[in-house]
Design brief:
The chain has 190 residues and is an all-alpha fold.
Length: 190
């Protein structure tokens, strides 16, 4: 019995340590500690335009949550997005994968990334077209649930999800429509 209790505690603690990231919460805490004011933090979280100096300062903060928030900002320049695509931390690259302003070259780079976390970021990118999303699924065998979390999931993929009977994907399709928390971060108008 003692061994079973010990194993239950280990499993519980492992779940707490490996819980999913929450960059909006954890990144905001790190940004407050770095001295950013509430208005700037809100702009960062919402993916609004930021002064170039702030973007460069944020890039120097080696925190994965801050990196994720910065990387998904659709107002970044191509040079900065390219630098972020080379970051070692796959959570930062996953934030970039969700950026609706990615170039075709960056989409290709991220599609060929070795990280599952990056691929699911691409699956949630609201600017990727149906063909690119279906190629991503075919290339990496991603579950439909990752595509169901895309706030702009194309109608053709929604139909495939509905016909799949995948309960988890159907749950996320419904949940995403009800709770777009911080989405969509729209591509800036040219």
């Amino acid at each position: 019995m003692t061994r079973q209790m010990f194993m239950a505690v280990v499993v519980l603690l492992a779940g707490c340590v490996n819980s999913p990231g929450w960059p909006e919460r954890d990144g905001a805490k790190r940004l407050r500690r770095a001295g950013y004011d509430g208005a700037t933090i809100t702009k960062i979280i919402q993916g609004r335009p930021l002064p170039e100096t702030v973007c460069h300062d944020l890039e120097s903060i080696r925190n994965q949550d801050v990196g994720f928030l910065l990387a998904r900002n659709p107002h970044l320049g191509i040079e900065q997005m390219t630098r972020l695509s080379r970051r070692k931390n796959d959570f930062v690259r996953a934030g970039l994968a969700r950026n609706p302003s990615l170039t075709a070259e960056l989409i290709d780079t991220l599609r060929n990334d070795s990280s599952h976390t990056v691929w699911i970021g691409l699956a949630a990118n609201p600017s990727l077209e149906t063909k690119a999303l279906l190629e991503l699924r075919k290339q990496h065998g991603l579950d439909w649930s990752w595509f169901a979390m895309n706030p702009a999931c194309p109608a053709q993929i929604v139909e495939k999800i509905r016909h799949s009977g995948d309960k988890k994907a159907l749950y996320w399709l419904d949940r995403t429509k009800k709770n777009l928390r911080g989405w969509p971060i729209e591509k800036p108008q040219s």
